[in-house]
Amino acid sequence: MNIEGHRRAIRESLEEIKEAVQKGLIERQRTIGFHCSVAAADMLEIFLHEQNLIDPGTTIKHEFFASTRKAYERIPVEFTEKETIIELMVELESKRNALCYGRPQPKENIEHYLLTFNKLRRVFDRLGVKYG
Prior knowledge:
The protein is built from five helices and no strands. The protein has helices spanning 3-23, 29-50, 68-74, 82-101, 107-126. Helix content is 68%, strand content 0%. The chain is globular and about 40 Å long. It has one domain (3-126). With 132 residues, the protein is an all-alpha fold.
């Protein structure tokens, strides 16, 4: 997918997250888990492509962040805020499957997930990633 395609996908995910929050966190936890995870991967991919740190055909997948070790293996290049980005993305991925496929989670867990996603968004905003 090209950068503009990633931007469209991120905008769609952000709209879905906003609607899910409005409709109810517990009722829409799957939507929140899926869209936060995929939007995070798209944001990182845009950043790495714009910095020319990965080849144009390279795809960043949420599964890369199943563990910190795996994330560093799959994303070997150095870049600003790498440790913070990987830490936040691993945290998102560690809770994704419980939200997407598990039983209803406590509201506090879903709120924490959204806070983690928003921390990550702020990092990408500071780094100049444009998706709006």
